[in-house]
């Protein structure tokens, strides 16, 4: 029974750490973000790209090896679907790159502004300067 309770205690400690919660939040937000970016690609960009390419939908392009018959289904290499996925990947990667780049620029700008706004430390008073000189003289003589 002690092995079981030790295991459960370790699991409870693992789950209650902040990094696990942060990871869970990241996965949830990432999933929602993926849906948004996929919609951007599928619903907004690909129709425009298809229009530019003359109405071609890559998912319909395939190399038929054996035509369908009454007894068997069509055997085909759907290379157009692969091309579509590569295009989706490139567009999604580009959108993520632009977003991360924008966030980093914003963060850098904010941190620079914060450093500029930080007040300079006050100059030491005459008492502190005099005491520092006395300390340095004592260190030198010893």
Q: Helix content range of the residues, please?
A: over 70%
Number of helices: 4
Note poorly predicted spans.
none
Shape verdict:
elongated
Strand content: under 5%
Question: What's the arrangement of strands in the largest beta sheet?
Answer: 1-2
The class by helix and strand makeup works out as: mainly alpha
- Tell me the number of structural domains: 2
Tell me, rounded to a whole number, the average pLDDT: 82
- Rg calculated over all Cα atoms: 32 Å
Describe this structure in words.
- This protein has 142 residues and is mostly helical.
- The protein folds into two domains: 1-54; 57-118.
- The chain contains four helices and two strands, in the order H-H-E-E-H-H.
- The protein has helices spanning 2-16, 18-52, 79-117, 126-141; strands spanning 63-66, 75-77.
- Strands 1-2 form a two-stranded antiparallel ribbon.
- Strand 1 and strand 2 form a beta hairpin.
- The longest helix has 39 residues, at 79-117.
- It starts with a helix and ends with a helix.
Features:
mainly alpha, 2 domains, two-stranded antiparallel sheet, elongated, 142 residues
Structural topology:
Blueprint: H1 2-16, H2 18-52, E1 63-66, E2 75-77, H3 79-117, H4 126-141
Antiparallel strand pairs: 1-2
Could you give a short description of this structure?
The protein is mainly alpha-helical and 142 residues long.
């Amino acid at each position: 029974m002690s092995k079981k309770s030790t295991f459960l205690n370790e699991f409870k400690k693992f789950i209650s750490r902040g990094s696990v919660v942060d990871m869970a939040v990241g996965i949830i937000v990432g999933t929602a973000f993926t849906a948004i970016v996929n919609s951007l690609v599928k619903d907004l960009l690909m129709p425009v790209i298809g229009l530019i390419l003359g109405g071609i939908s890559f998912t319909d392009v395939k190399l038929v090896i054996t035509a369908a018959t009454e007894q068997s289904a069509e055997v085909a290499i759907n290379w157009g679907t692969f091309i579509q996925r590569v295009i989706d990947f490139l567009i999604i990667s580009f959108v993520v790159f632009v977003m991360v780049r924008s966030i980093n620029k914003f963060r850098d700008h904010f941190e620079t502004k914060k450093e500029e706004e930080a007040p300079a430390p006050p100059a030491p008073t005459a008492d502190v300067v005099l005491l520092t000189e006395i300390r340095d003289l004592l260190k030198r003589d010893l």
